[in-house]
Amino acid sequence: MGSAAISVKTEGYMYTVVCFGDTNTWGYDNRSGERLPYGERWTGILAHELGDDFRIIEEGQPGRATTEDPVEPGKNAKKYIGPCLESHEPVDVFVMMLGQPDLKKRFSLTACDISMGIEVLAKIVLTSNAGPEHRPPKLLIISPVQVGVVAGSPMENWFPSVGTSERSAQLPALYKRIADKYGAGFLEASTVAATAEDAIHIDNGSHKAFACAVAEKIRKLLEI
To answer: What b/e readout covers 9-27, taking b as 16+ CB neighbours within 10 angstroms?
Structure first.
């Protein structure tokens, strides 16, 4: 495909990687509730790991979901993913980690519902002309970290204390099925990253290991 051939086209070419996600891509700090410094959040570490041949575009938005949020406007990934692709083209790799906010009480979505939303987004990316030579970008689908014990956590106001962890546990297999169906890359975040004590976010100490795993998947997609 186009991305693999880019490395021999022009000396000094920079690969563009868009990291599209929610609070976990934004870089939530479990200690303060604010944003981690650039060098401590996984997208910043990813830029360091991949080096000067890569441009990492951070497109993480707190609360972004695969569907319309009835409480917070402007969080619908389906409405923004098209403009996002166009804004940053040519995009060599589109990294997508979504689905955690979709587990909130107000959405009442099953794991299958969430995966269907992910599939819609995947098809938008893979039928776009936002990649090099107006081809689709490579796509890496990431399932979020496994939800922990919600009961008694600060997140219980938003996420059901019963059933959320179970729905979360179903997502990796569903996401992998989508990735396999469309020839995308896949990473299960929980295989390399721990969940914070709040039961929802990536633990601060896991950002480096997670970034290294993402870097490996990106290199594999680009065959470099």
So the answer is: eeeeeebbbbbbbbbbbbb
Question: Peptide bond before 90: cis, by omega within 30 degrees of 0?
Answer: yes
Residue 85 and residue 93 in contact, taking contact as beta carbons nearer than 8 Å: no
Strand 15-21 with 185-188, pairing: unpaired
Angle between helices 207-222 and 42-50 (to 10 degrees): 50
Strand order from edge to edge, sheet including 138-143: 54-60, 15-21, 93-97, 138-143, 185-188
Which amino acid is located at 144 in the chain? P
Q: The pTM is what?
A: 0.94
155-212 pLDDT, tens per residue?
999 999 999 999 999 999 999 999 999 999 999 999 999 999 999 999 999 999 999 9
Helix (H) or strand (E) holding 207: helix 207-222
To which residue do tokens 């939303």 refer? 117
Q: Are 61 and 19 in contact (CB under 8 A)?
A: no
